[in-house]
From TrEMBL:
Protein name: Glycosyl transferase CAP10 domain-containing protein
Molecular function GO terms recorded: glycosyltransferase activity
Pfam families documented for this protein: Branch
N-terminal signal peptide: 1-24
Organism, as annotated: Ensete ventricosum
Annotated membrane topology: Single-pass type II membrane protein
UniProt keyword annotation of Cytoplasm present: no
Predominant location category: membrane
């Protein structure tokens, strides 16, 4: 019970507080959990025992990253279906678990789920859930600091251990899917490119965060900015977990107000595989209200109109392959996921998802 309550209060805190991004980024979530830790210690014995699921292992980060970069792609002749790895970087529980469960239902074998959660929150979802025992060995995450990137690399590395995983998407607990599973699966598996937003922003929050001490490993001209919420194909995922060249430089020289999660991947992907990136994210986020934090949708904001705008309100290029212009198609579906939603929006989101199913 203590565990349940503490995980719950954590989520309420995380979602309920509309703290500006620069403030949120400086919150150390280990500290948030600290107050509940003493309470939990009496029950952690059982929770730890439960954690011995398939995903649990005792590899340290070094060994994990090394092993992950060596797992070959599943051989085509084995006729195993390619899978999409859904990687959840969360603080506590996933408030939209029920929505996601409906999304995944009936598609076993085409996806895998990985959860990196605060080590202090040990609540396990029900056994029947697709989220049951999908937690990977996790460490405390400081929002916006290098530990965030380490968590992302840990997620990628764990997901790479499954040779069938072909596409890897990072999600947060405030993310929702915008389409049904087959649509999202086909969009990702069928894409020639990865979706990592990456742009050269001349402003203070872009080039302004570059440190000349990164030279010559990263030059100002190579410096990129983008959203943290990425989607990559397998080859690029391997490149990211095996990177020993750029990561130490970012760790050392990208400190607040330089946020490593907004610059490392956008820059490194542009260096490693510029021709393999669509340079845009498939995760919708609304910065239009200005300021340093995106809009958070509450229950009353959720409407069919909003969902339609997210689903089809933008124009972008899908599968723009420069060597093969006839594969170029302009798509009005640019976003597959959206954030940020408050937990209170769940009821309405379920209603809308149900209604959409009936119309199809
Ligand atoms: C993405 O950006 C890189 C440079 O950072 C560029 O070389 C590449 O052509 C861009 N890709 C697309 C699809 O625009
Ligand atoms: C692209 O166009 C060329 C020439 O018109 C054709 O030979 C080729 O098969 C096409 N490729 C695809 C993928 O449609």
């Amino acid at each position: 019970m203590a565990t349940l309550l503490s995980c719950f209060s954590l989520v309420v805190f995380a979602l309920g507080s509309l703290v500006p991004l620069h403030f949120a980024k400086s919150l150390v979530f280990a500290d948030l959990c600290f107050g509940t830790y003493a309470l939990q210690s009496s029950v952690t014995g059982t929770a730890r025992a439960n954690a011995g699921g398939r995903l649990w292992h005792s590899m340290g980060d070094e060994e994990l990253l090394r092993r992950a970069s060596a797992v070959p792609r599943a051989v085509e002749s084995r006729r195993k279906a390619k899978k999409v790895a859904f990687m959840f970087l969360t603080r506590g529980r996933i408030p939209f678990r029920v929505l996601w469960e409906r999304f995944f239902r009936g598609h076993d074998g085409l996806f895998s789920i990985y959860i990196h959660a605060s080590p202090d929150c040990e609540e396990e979802p029900p056994e029947a859930s697709v989220f049951y025992m999908r937690r990977i060995p996790s460490k405390p995450v400081e929002w916006g600091g290098p530990s965030m990137l380490e968590a992302e690399r840990r997620l990628l590395a764990n997901a790479l251990l499954d040779a069938c995983n072909e596409r890897f998407v990072l999600l947060s607990e405030s993310c929702i899917p915008l389409f049904d599973f087959p649509t999202i699966y086909n969009y990702l598996i069928g894409s020639a490119l990865s979706f990592v937003s990456s742009l050269d922003d001349p402003g203070k929050a872009g080039r302004g965060r570059y440190s000349r001490r990164m030279r010559p490993t990263v030059t100002l001209a190579e410096w990129r900015k983008g959203s943290q919420w990425f989607e990559v194909q397998r080859g690029l995922a391997v490149g990211i977990v095996s990177d020993r060249r750029y990561y130490p430089v970012f760790r050392e020289h990208c400190r607040p107000p330089c946020y490593v999660d907004e610059h490392y991947l956008p820059t490194v992907v542009a260096k490693l595989a510029p021709g393999l990136n669509a340079n845009r994210s498939v995760t919708w986020v609304d910065w239009s209200r200005g300021g340093s934090h995106p809009a958070t949708y509450k229950r009353r904001d959720v409407s069919l109109g909003l969902m339609e705008r997210m689903r089809r309100g933008s124009k972008c290029v899908y599968n723009n392959n420069n060597n093969n212009n006839n594969r170029t198609t302009t798509s009005s579906s640019c976003f597959l996921f959206a954030r940020k939603f408050e937990a209170s929006a769940l009821g309405r989101l379920l209603l809308i998802a149900d209604a959409a199913k009936r119309w199809n």
